[in-house]
């Protein structure tokens, strides 16, 4: 649990004197963790990341904090926990480094910081077969596969132009979807692949902007790339029918069955040589 200072009052209150949050504070003499307000009130971290950092700071050295281990303890699941770890890493509350032991085994060393180091660019975490722990060594599995952006099977200039205009216009639907020219160029082939598979532009636009998170979007291009890769529909089935064979007819000359569009004689009876005989 976190000791709140200086934002929390030091004595319990029995009744509210104003609207909004009130506190009932009791001193802890054991089993508590001091957490700075720079973390508890961080303006850029998600609540999942803040809660995860608080949990990790409360653990003893050697505790298991790999993605699978944390997902087994909490309901958020591996995807949200992995994203929260990346947030903490980017804001200096966590570091993960791969090391090679004398035995040759590659392990991950995880360190939690109660005061953040200088912010560093976020990196995608390795998917761990065994959970990693602060200042301890655990085996690491290869990184989880990330679906690549789809591409159209056939080039089409008009479809490509429609896809680029669709992406550039998303900011009119949600100001947070502000894409750079480089982002538009990177995502345009993926949108063109959706259009190639029979999706109307309005349907593609709806799939990209529906049910967006309410919090600020720090990486709108990454969110759109994920949706374009993960929500891609399969190609439409080929509905073209093979040509149907001609129906059976009865030969007027020999009563033998043969295929033809119109009644008449079979090929043998209709042969000039046979007719002359």
Write the layout of secondary structure elements.
Layout: H1 37-40, H2 47-57, H3 67-73, H4 77-90, E1 94-100, E2 106-112, H5 157-168, H6 170-173, H7 181-196, H8 201-209, H9 220-230, E3 248-250, E4 257-259, H10 272-276
Antiparallel strand pairs: 1-2, 3-4
Features:
disordered C terminus; single chain; 4 strands; 34% helix; 277 residues
Distance between the termini: 110 Å
Query: What is the mean pLDDT?
Result: 80
Note the beta-strand portion. 5-15%
Give the low-pLDDT segments. Answer: 119-145, 273-277
Order of helices and strands: HHHHEEHHHHHEEH
Can you list the strand order of the major beta sheet?
A: 1-2
The tally of helices reads: 10
**Major pleated sheet:** 2 strands, antiparallel
Helix content: 25-40%
Structural class of the helix and strand makeup? mainly alpha
Principal-axis shape equals elongated
Using the CA coordinates, give the radius of gyration.
Answer: 33 Å
Strand tally, please? 4
Structure description:
The strands form two sheets. A two-stranded antiparallel sheet has the order 1-2. The protein has a two-stranded antiparallel sheet with strand order 3-4. It is built from ten helices and four strands. Helices cover 34% and strands 7% of the residues. The protein is elongated, with a radius of gyration of 33 Å. The termini are far apart. The protein has 277 residues and is mainly alpha-helical. The chain has a domain at 157-230.
């Amino acid at each position: 649990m976190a000791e709140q200072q200086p934002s929390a009052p030091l004595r319990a209150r029995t009744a509210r004197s104003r609207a909004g949050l009130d506190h009932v504070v009791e001193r802890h003499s054991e089993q508590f963790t001091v957490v700075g307000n720079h973390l508890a009130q961080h303006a850029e971290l998600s609540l999942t990341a803040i809660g995860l950092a608080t949990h990790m700071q409360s653990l003893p050295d050697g505790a298991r904090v790999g993605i699978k281990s944390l997902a087994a303890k909490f309901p958020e699941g591996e995807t949200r926990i992995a994203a929260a770890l990346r947030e903490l890493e980017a804001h200096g509350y966590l570091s993960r480094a791969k090391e090679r032991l004398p035995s040759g085994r590659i392990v991950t060393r995880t360190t939690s910081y109660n005061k953040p180091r200088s912010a560093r660019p976020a990196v995608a975490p390795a998917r761990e077969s065994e959970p990693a722990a602060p200042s301890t060594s655990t085996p690491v599995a290869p990184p989880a596969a990330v679906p690549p952006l789809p591409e159209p099977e056939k080039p089409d200039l008009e479809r490509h132009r429609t896809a680029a205009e669709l992406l550039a216009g998303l900011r009119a639907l949600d100001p947070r979807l502000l894409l750079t020219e480089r982002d538009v160029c990177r995502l345009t082939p993926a949108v063109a692949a959706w259009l190639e598979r029979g999706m109307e532009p309005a349907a593609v636009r709806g799939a990209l902007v529906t049910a967006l998170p309410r919090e600020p979007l720090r990486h709108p291009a990454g969110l759109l790339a994920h949706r374009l890769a993960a929500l891609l529909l399969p190609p439409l089935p080929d509905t073209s029918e093979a040509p149907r064979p001609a129906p059976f007819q009865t030969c007027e000359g020999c009563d033998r069955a043969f295929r033809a569009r119109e009644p008449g004689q079979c090929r043998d009876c209709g042969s000039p040589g046979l007719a002359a005989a």
